[in-house]
Amino acid sequence: MEPTAAKHSFLRNILVRLFSFAVLVFAIRFAIIVTVHGGTRDSADFCFFFESHNLSVPAHFSDAVDPFSGKNWRRSVEYYVAVFRDLIAEGSLSPDSHALCIDTPGGEEVLALREVGVVDSVGIFKKPSPPLILQGNGCRHPFSGDTFDFEFTRSGALERSPRPAEFAAEIGRTLRLGGFVAVHTAAETARDAFSFNSFLELFNCCELIRTREINGVDSSPIIEILMKKKRHGFSETLASSPNGNFVNKCFVPWHKREIVINAEALIKDEPLKPWVILKRNIKNIKYLTSLVNISFKNRYVYVDVGARSYGSSIGSWFRKQYPKQNKTFEVYAIEADKAFHEEYRTKKGVNLLPYAAWVRNETLFFEITRDPSKKMMVKGGGVRGMGRINPVQTSSSHMGDMDKIQGFDFAEWLKSAVTSRDFVVVKMDVEGTEFHLIPRLIQSGAICLIDELFLECHYNRWQRCCAGPRSAKYHKTYSECLDLFTSLRNHGVLVHQWW
Ligand SMILES: *[C@@H]1O[C@H](CO)[C@@H](O)[C@H](O)[C@H]1NC(C)=O
Ligand SMILES: *[C@@H]1O[C@H](CO)[C@@H](O)[C@H](O)[C@H]1NC(C)=O
Ligand SMILES: *[C@@H]1O[C@H](CO)[C@@H](O)[C@H](O)[C@H]1NC(C)=O
Ligand SMILES: *[C@@H]1O[C@H](CO)[C@@H](O)[C@H](O)[C@H]1NC(C)=O
């Protein structure tokens, strides 16, 4: 009997201990889960227990948001597991990495990261779903700078962002120096060099490591772009010296030269009927937006130099006919003639610069042609000829025919108004001043900021047809105009002959 009783109490002892241990474990888990749901943000603390969480599809998440998730959530997780395994094998991701997944509605990437052993990972989305997804968005990460070793963006997130430049800058901020960012984006991003370079320019914190084409979650072709953070903040390629006397040869990348090669040919011989030929040439024009994808630009800007009335080119042509790939452009109208200013006050979304585009800041005289044969009616009353700008050097006897206006340094203004990350279209019709403005734009490097230029070059054209009288108004010849266009194209500027 003795040995049996001893055996019983021994067993009871063990059972009691086991039971207490189980209770203890349960209590600890409960405490931790409560803490987690109570809002702690450091995912690393509870990763050990994450499998006990209800990791089904987040409540806000439905098929309507993304047809490839929802009920296919698990398949999606498996997809990202494969993606991250490759990155680990490659060395850009490691189990020690502190990782962030940006704009993830379902958190599949975050779960996949944890499943491949990167336990310290978290996602952000506008609707939070702890513990995987905290509240935030691509343009605002709820973290301080230099926090993550690895960041990931699923396909579509950057494309859908209304402000891709901010999206990229925010990655540049929260990524650590030496950290990696992998961006999944539609294969279209790399289809043309202009688009791919625009993309890389957005991420100017980072250096391109490699790209690879893979299938997306839905098997559509996507591209994975891997980059490494090399520097803090931005370094614009163009810098002007304080006195504005910058000399700046800008670098013309090969893809810009390629676009110019594919553009419509310049008209080599002087047209016999210029007003017919140049107008007909409009049909041949290869717009930049019909050749490349402009999605990854920061801002979209149209500058009309010599805008005249609103209807003459902004309203009739740019707003109605220029192909914009559905982007909203900021419009700048540069027009010195007061007769046109009133009209712009009522035009929404047009910024009027009531000055003359010139090569430096100075007062100019604006010639008003009084010759009755060249009279032009202008909306608002007055009779005006096509204005021409002359620097201050006229004798006072002509002052009655001149309007005093303020000229400004157009090249300097352009450098302050836009950056190379913006998409900039310029139309220039400045009555001969192009022979001053274009060399200044080239010499200052500001020319590289212009993506597409529509230039009307003014020369002493035939008034009717060949061998008849030539316009006395302009002194340049057609061949000088052709030189101007050729030199612009040699600088990688897609310039079109405008009428
Ligand atoms: C867990 O997920 C299921 C859906 O699969 C849901 O019905 C349930 O309410 C969830 N439980 C908790 C505690 O969130
Ligand atoms: C440009 O590319 C993006 C993706 O890279 C795509 O979403 C967009 O539809 C494309 N736009 C055009 C006009 O092709
Ligand atoms: C153009 O943009 C508008 C809203 O900005 C949108 O409703 C429309 O679907 C877009 N069209 C295309 C072809 O992308
Ligand atoms: C020219 O004028 C603009 C606007 O008033 C000013 O911002 C700029 O500094 C001036 N440039 C020079 C070189 O004086």
UniProtKB/TrEMBL annotation:
Segments traversing the membrane: 14-36
UniProt domain DUF7870: residue ranges: 269-360, 401-499
Source domain of life: Eukaryota
Protein name: DUF7870 domain-containing protein
Listed InterPro entries: DUF7870, SAM-dependent_MTases_sf
The keyword Transmembrane helix is annotated on this UniProt entry: yes
Keywords: Membrane, Transmembrane, Transmembrane helix
Keyword RNA-binding: no
PANTHER family, per database record: METHYLTRANSFERASE (PTHR44843), METHYLTRANSFERASE TYPE 11 DOMAIN-CONTAINING PROTEIN (PTHR44843:SF14)
